[in-house]
Design brief:
Two copies of one chain form a homodimer. Chain A is 48% helix and 21% strand. Chain A is an alpha+beta fold. Chain A has one domain: Homing endonucleases (Endonuclease I-creI), CATH 3.10.28.10. Chain A starts with 5 loop residues before the first helix and ends in a 12-residue tail after the last helix.
Chain lengths: 147, 147
């Protein structure tokens, strides 16, 4: 991640508050010990019409990947745990609307490192489910471990 | 308008770049000399679910009005010319994606003061129509003065 100025950090916090997303997905995947892959994301969105200028914004972050969705929306995604942590530490002090999501994300990443058994993982899943309340997802399905 | 810090200005620029709108509407209105009212707007959007925290963002600006649309989206609108000018002078240096809209807005507000005849107003309308190219509006109607 690049060294950027405090106003650039504040700009990115405003951008994320306006049109960004901070969340963790639980993907069912039997290759993982507890049946789920824990996938954290920070995503910035923009219309594909402004791709060239949007790349300037993304270049301030410089640790994600850009993709164009079929509906014409550009998504710039930060998906690696180390990058997410340093990005949130950088913009965290300037976040207003998504401050709770950022704090929850950091808590989840911390707990994830400490998971030692099925009960720990169940607690982690409960934390991850809290994003639904913060992010007004339409999916109200609560995740459950198979017994 | 309040005195705010440079990181607060940069935050607001990021918010506007992420999920804000800068444009001028031409409203047909026979009470006006050339048949149109020129209405400039800067709008910040947010889900109504986060109304309380969104008000914190709005309080940094402190010169607009908040309304809730029927679809549940909150709009904070800056509509007075003097406020728009000082707001854009404040956040302008930090804008990236909507820099062109901000410059076009300031140019239009300047030209509007100097309108002296129908030809001047026609040129002003042409400038206003340029927002369509920048803001990817679905309405492609070009405004025309009645002869």
């Amino acid at each position: 991640m690049l060294k950027i100025s405090s106003t650039q950090k504040a700009y990115l916090a405003g951008f994320i508050d306006g049109d960004g997303s901070i969340y963790v997905r639980l993907k069912p995947n039997d290759d993982y010990r507890y049946g789920f892959q824990v996938s954290p994301y920070i995503i910035l969105f923009q219309s594909a019409k402004d791709e060239e200028i949007f790349k300037k914004v993304c270049s301030l972050i410089n640790c994600g990947y850009l993709r164009k969705r079929k509906d014409g929306i550009l998504e710039y995604t930060i998906g690696r745990v180390a990058d997410i942590k340093s990005f949130l530490e950088m913009i965290g002090p300037y976040l207003i609307l998504k401050k709770r999501q950022a704090d929850l994300m950091l808590k989840i990443l911390e707990k994830k490192e400490l998971v030692d058994n099925k009960n720990d993982f169940k607690k982690l899943m409960d934390l991850i489910d809290k994003f639904r309340d913060l992010n007004y997802s339409k999916k109200r399905k609560k995740h459950k471990l198979t017994p």
